[in-house]
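User: Can you fold this complex?
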Amino acid sequence: MLFRMIRGALFRQRGKMLLIAFTIALGASLATSMINVMLDVGDKVNQELKTYGANITVKPKDSTLLSDIYDVEDDGSAAISTSWLREDEVGKLKTIFWAFNIVDFAPFTESAVTLPSGAEVTAVGTWFNHHLDLPTGESLDAGVTGLRSWWDMTEGAWIDEQAAGSDHDVLVGSLVAQREGLKAGDTLTLRGPAGEQTVKVAGVYDAGGDEDEQIYAPLDLVQALSDTDGKIASIEVSALTTPDNDLARRAAQNPKALSTRDYETWYCTAYVSAICYQISEVITNSVASAVRQVAESEGAILDKTQLLMILITALSLVGSALGISNLVTASVMERSQEIGLLKAIGAHDRAITGVVMAEILLTALVGGVAGYFVGFGFAQLIGHSVFSSSIEMKPMVIPLVAVLITAVTVAGSMPAIRMVLRLDPAEVLHGSKA
Amino acid sequence: MFLRMITASLLRRRSRMLVALLSIGIGATILSGLVTIYYDVPRQMGAQFRNYGANMILLPSGGEKLTTGEAQEALGAIPADQLVGATPYRYVTAQMTRSQLSFMAAGTDFTQVQATSPYFMVEGAYPSGSREVLLGEEVAQTIGAKLGSVVEISYKPDAASADAATPITPGAALAGSAEGFNTNLVYVTLTLDDEMKIASLTVNADTQTPEYGGRAAEETYTRQFIGKSLPVRLGEDVDALSGATITSDAVVQAVNSARPTANAAAASGNTLSLRVVGILDTGGKEESYIFLSMSDMAALTGAEDELDVMELSVSASGAELEGYVSEIAEKHSGITPRLVKRVTRSEGAVLSKLQALVFLVTAVVLLLTMICVSTTMMAVVTERRKEIGLRKALGASDSSIRAEFLGEGLMLGGLGGALGAALGFVFAQVVSVHVFESSITFQPLLLPVTILVSMIVAAVSCLLPIKHAVAIDPALVLKGE
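Assistant: Here's the predicted assembly.
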């Protein structure tokens, strides 16, 4: 009986019910899209901020004493090895707890080289898009191509390490190229402390900084020039991090001073200091430190963007909630005659409330489901047009939106139903009130 | 009469109209609030991006130095409200008298440093008085200095940069320097005899490793230079020190590049005792620098008002920055402005994404809210079909009914719009204060636009149901079918 009544009401008042379903769908889609975007905006903006380059540098523990050790090189190599990092350990970066957050990295080594003209420049050996097969079974390409995204290649292109014959390609800084008259495609001989190498200029870059006075070459080439096979001077790491808070700052001073519980919280959160700590654990004899210029600013911008999105989401949620409850209230008031009639023929208040609520909630269900999918589409639209990647579908959004829509619908209809029920059926039917 | 009918109808049906007004108000609030935020986001976010530090530098053209006056004059090209900070830097290589190690010393203005490089993390405090110094963490570790300890630094002018025009004449006293091991400087002073041959040579190799390069200062090594004419060739005229080829090479280079000393005092250099008030942690190259105030720097070098570079932090878009660069380059021939590409490029990329995000979010929210508002309006008007039928039965023309409802809609729209515009501004203000800790600028144009849009949305959403109601036979409507 109840079922027939509800079905009857839904079909008879198809137009009105459609309007309610439509409004609820709009509200639900707004809520879905905004919550989805809000939950994902941190990750997305974090990815964008990676254009600022590395936020962690890894150096040998006693790099400042390099000078003293260098002079005693003749005495034996045991003392020297401590002031370098090992190239074969670079892949270990991807084995730390927060390995997934490490976006890109590159090892560096430097050597003074002499050009054919007699001028001395610094040659920086590094990875460009080095292919790594990790013990975990993953494989990835890492290198400076991603870490120096602001460089302008005025001539030629980035070195593709995976292409055959690229092991003798170099990139030349714009100032060096200008002074020496070098162009892409030229060949020249570099003389280093431990040998000579004939190289081809693959490209000329304009970095707008000190790097314009340098030459960037594959790591193996510079290692051969300076006889430092397998040794690297530093590693730059670009990692997705969580903005620092008090705990992170205390931990950065001395992680050992934390209580066990704080230590675990800190270790298992992607704070830049925690990631640095974990890197130092896996790379022998290293100190990883945050590049404050990048790390601090990233934190500030991330915080602000997230807060902004939360507030905008709150506003749109309040807006859609009021919109829905408004309409539901209006639609209940409109049906005062019908309710009056039900009352006149002896229906209980509870039965009437049940029927009306069931109708509205059923409508809300249809509208909510439709709205969820439409809203998800909106979220993807925003993701693709702004960040060129899809917004992750978070399952927690579904119950959130469901609860929201139910609460709003009930809150919008209950007071109205109560009010209508309080009226005298005779008056309502006569049409003089409401 | 018309106005009275509308106001009467609005007042009589108070609760229903309140619903409509509320829904229009919400729509207008969202409209004005989000649009205000959208316009303010680039400015506010731009200020956040200034955390990345300087995005433009002023360099002297050629090998000259800048003066503060010249730099300040060039700053005139940039509006004061866009200039976050302008920090002068004077770089010299200074030596710690106790440890004999050389470090890069930077003279600067610490209040400006805090504006242009907000990411500097200082343990202790920035120097505020004279004879105070901020040490990079690496420097502090190397020399073992702590907060409160006193360091003594000395500076010997780089002879190569002294007046190169002074010709080298017989009997002249010369001074020179060159980078030795680990880019630490080796200093030499020498005198020539009447035949332009070296008469005496003193080498200061304190910066080198004592038992290797340090031996270059010993008389047993320097005496082989006596009687040789410039330029001296290593391996032919003189032998290298065993185990310290780099230092030997530096001594020869310093001798060959030596220039007449303008005055003896400048050559011997000045020494300052400075108290360590702060230790700097940046994770970058600044950690190996020593920072002191401009006046201390002047006392150290004996040269007033000389700058190597001026770092600027300007809150402006990429195109504006390019404009300032070309303007300064054109007007001030002594200054070469350059953009710090790493900062400007990345800022442009991220900022445009953020703006696009807020734009799209605003567009989606607005679209959905407006539809929401019009469905509510439709429901409210549809409800009044009976009233329309009655009017029609009493002989009212279609157009007069339409006009009345439209007027009602417009009035609701206007009221709701005004209410929403005010609430929206309050919302934007709350967001701005909470997120960016600064107040928002009021967009005067937004007030009429919000009201207008609300009126249009209200009117359009009234029209549709009225059209339906008017088209139907009044008898049917009144009967309630």
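The first strand of chain A starts at residue 56 and ends at 60. The mean pLDDT of chain A is 82.
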